[in-house]
Write a structure and sequence with these properties.
Elements lengths: L2 H25 L5 H36 L6 H19 L6 E2 L3 H25 L6 H8 L2 H24 L1 E2 L8 H27 L3
Antiparallel strand pairs: 1-2
Helix pairs in contact: 1-2, 1-7, 2-3, 2-4, 3-4, 4-5, 4-6, 6-7
């Protein structure tokens, strides 16, 4: 991975980790989510870690295509396959945990494909505009307006939240929490939506800060 692609991967990781921290902070104050938090919090932490890995692969792939100056028609398919391998490691890490999960790929795969496509395109645009004598912030400002950056980040986090909703519905919770599973999943999604909107605003403001 090039230094510029690595810098974009670090920025993406910071955004996703901030998203996870902010979401968890709201969860701690919300019932019945507070009751489910001992089961949800480790899952959310592991989930964001695997998404960071997947996104780093997408950014690296876009960087190689940009350097080659050629289209990469197999990128989405191959990145989806790589994501499944990371999922396998994620599920293996949950063995012995108080929750079990079966990933609903029929629902999740279209969401992932859209996230991959958006991240590939955004990375290509940024790397194309990033000159050696100028930094990442200047490249972002050249590629996007402040409103466009906010929308781009929100759309990415929105798809991430929808995937998390599908995953949370697939979680096999302890018996005492099963009757509330759907309400827990929906409440989690609503919280993630609100957090995504605020984080997108904050990140766009930071990108255009003097």
């Amino acid at each position: 991975m090039s230094n510029r692609a690595r810098a974009l991967a670090r920025l993406n990781r910071a955004l996703l980790e901030s998203f996870s921290r902010r979401t968890t902070g709201v969860l701690r104050a919300a019932l019945p989510l507070r009751l489910a938090l001992p089961h949800l919090e480790p899952l959310l932490a592991r989930n964001v870690a695997k998404e960071v890995r997947k996104d780093a692969l997408v950014i690296a792939r876009a960087g190689r295509a940009s350097a080659a100056g050629a289209p990469d028609s197999e990128a989405v398919r191959e990145l989806l396959e790589a994501a499944r391998k990371i999922d396998g490691e994620f599920l293996a890490g949950l063995r012995g945990a108080p929750v079990r999960i079966v990933i609903p790929y029929d629902e999740i795969t279209p969401l992932r494909a859209r996230r991959i496509e958006q991240l590939l395109e955004a990375t290509r645009r940024i790397l194309h505009s990033w000159e050696a004598k100028r930094g990442l912030r200047a490249a972002l400002q050249e590629c996007f307006t402040r409103a466009e950056i906010e929308r781009l980040i929100y759309d990415d986090l929105h798809l991430y939240a929808k995937e998390t909703l599908a995953l949370s519905r697939a979680v096999h919770l302890p018996a005492i929490l099963r009757p509330a599973r759907e309400s827990i999943a929906q409440r989690l999604y609503e919280i993630m939506q609100r957090v995504a909107a605020q984080l997108a605003r904050d990140a766009a403001a930071s990108a255009f800060r003097s």
